[in-house]
Design a protein that fits this description.
single chain, two-stranded antiparallel ribbon, mainly alpha, Arc Repressor Mutant, subunit A, globular
Amino acid sequence: MIGKIMGEIHHMTPYLPEGGAGLHDRAVDLIERSAALSGKLHPITLKGLIHLLQITNTYYSNLIENHVTNPIDIERAMMHQYDRDPAKRDLQIEAKTHVDLERELDHEVASEDVLPTSPDFIRSIHRRFFEKLPERFLQIPDIDGQSVLAMTPGGYRNRYVKVGHLVPVAPEAVPMFMEEFHRQYDISRFGRAEKLIAIAAAHHRLMWIHPFLDGNGRVARLLTGICLKKAGITGYGLWSISRGFARFKDDYMSALAVADAVRQGDLDGRGVLSQKGLNRFCGFFFNTCLDQITFMEKLLDLDGLVMRIEQYIRLRSSRLIPGAGPLRPEALHLIREAFAFGEFQRGQASRLTGLKERTARALLTDMVAEGLMVSDTPKGPVRLNFNARFLPVWFPDLGPHTE
């Protein structure tokens, strides 16, 4: 049995796309543009916006699984405000768990001891996500479509499964394939641009191994984000691979399926799997990353953002935003100042708005009370409080089109 399983390890070849796939230049472009994107924002603004984007990232990752939880409902769950409907509540718990885990992993990835592609770390991602979910998320239909299996959080699958036309590796072979996965895709082995190429290939190969009964897509997307950060991709978090995969879901599934294919003759590489298929998936991966960076470059253009904030204030004055009353037009100056410089002292409100001291102070107090601004102390500096209510106007198309 061991000899047979060891032989099957080679069924994961080729491990990387061919150099001729033209990915190196796209990797360099991605590194440079992602860094420039983060350079557009003050560090305080950057931190606050990424906090919001982790919620939209969760929305899109769930959407790929056909689990729909509006960012506003996810934000409510983060404050332990759950829906009375049990099904919606369960989805909120699922989303909150995802956001919490992503934030935990962000802190951990800075440690030199973290080996994100190691089997133990990948299993810990799965365990930490699923152990906090309602029981129904652990009930998985068997391959026969008749019976239901109970999934163990963090446990490798002990059954054969079928994913579309793919029957992944034998369950007894999973541990050895995961060890081989780490040997081949440990990003510390690669140069900077080559790290990204390895991360793209690893995303598919982890899905191909399919180590868990369920949750492989979620784990792969979380792992990909961790690896991008571990690889030093400054700015990741301002753009999300999950949003890209969700926006182009059919293309994503098609690219995965093509890379699942076995070698198609002598002109298709020397591995067991299709070299052309892996090249295509990695090309799709990079195109998706660059598309998301382009989207955020436009969204974070300061002039365009100011115009959208002005529109937001006009809509409020016209009472066209549910649950929000009129807002003085001078609020724009405070919002712009906080966006550009991260924060400002409360005593600056009069100078920034041109209003009398008492009127400016009252405006700022109202903005803090309703959550437009936030401060760590009652008299401390204030900064923008990015939240899901702003998405439709401030950041159109970043979240769902409707609330």
